[in-house]
Design brief:
This protein has 192 residues and is an all-alpha fold. It has one domain. The chain starts with a helix and ends in a 22-residue tail after the last helix. Strands 1-2 form a two-stranded antiparallel sheet. InterPro entries: EMC3/TMCO1 (IPR002809), TMCO1 (IPR008559).
């Protein structure tokens, strides 16, 4: 019981608790994603096809500037682009099942943290945030000090940054060609 009392007397204990829980949640979410997605053969084949298509597309686009017969090259580029979009869409649908489980974990952890730190200032911002950011950072807190930071804002920032960097570190970041794609890709300007 000496440890919790020591931590509670520490100036940054609430902030470090939120950051620590965010780190643990990111590790758990990536473990779930690895079990459901990253270790499967279908994910590996989709990822390799996206990588190959994006490299091929990149090479074709650099060659198009050199070649005079651009009409046949643009047709080939369009075919590779559509193949890349289809593979990226398939990859997004494949990741969807893991996304539901991860969302459930994040929802439970956020509810737990919200009940633990309800109405408590967990950090001080080094600046006065602008309007909409202040509404997020000061959510659920009493008082008028705009530099007070709620658990929700700190957890949100930590979750985004830690999970993204953890994915890059573990090699689970999306393939290069799948960056702009997804379930709802941007419309193609050529068809509009």
């Amino acid at each position: 019981m000496a440890t919790p009392q020591f931590l509670s007397s520490f100036k940054y204990s609430d902030s470090l608790t939120v950051v620590g829980i965010s780190m643990c949640t990111a590790v758990v979410c990536e473990a779930i994603s690895w079990i459901l997605i990253y270790r499967t053969n279908s994910y590996k084949s989709l990822k390799s096809s996206i990588d190959k298509a994006s490299k091929k597309l990149e090479n074709m686009k650099t060659e198009t500037t050199k070649v005079t017969n651009k009409k046949s090259k643009t047709k080939k580029i369009d075919r590779v682009e559509s193949s890349l979009k289809e593979s990226s869409r398939d990859l997004s649908l494949f990741k969807f099942k893991s996304g539901a489980v991860v969302a459930l974990v994040l929802f439970v952890v956020f509810g737990l943290l919200n009940s633990l730190f309800e109405g408590k200032v967990v950090a001080k911002l080094p600046f006065k945030p602008i309007g909409i950011v202040m509404k997020m950072s000061h959510r659920g807190l009493q008082g008028d000090d705009a530099t007070d930071c709620s658990m929700a804002f700190l957890y949100f920032l930590c979750s985004i940054s830690i999970r993204t960097n953890l994915q890059k570190f573990l090699g689970f970041s999306p393939p290069r060609g799948a960056a702009g794609a997804g379930l709802f890709p941007m419309p193609d300007p050529k068809t509009n």
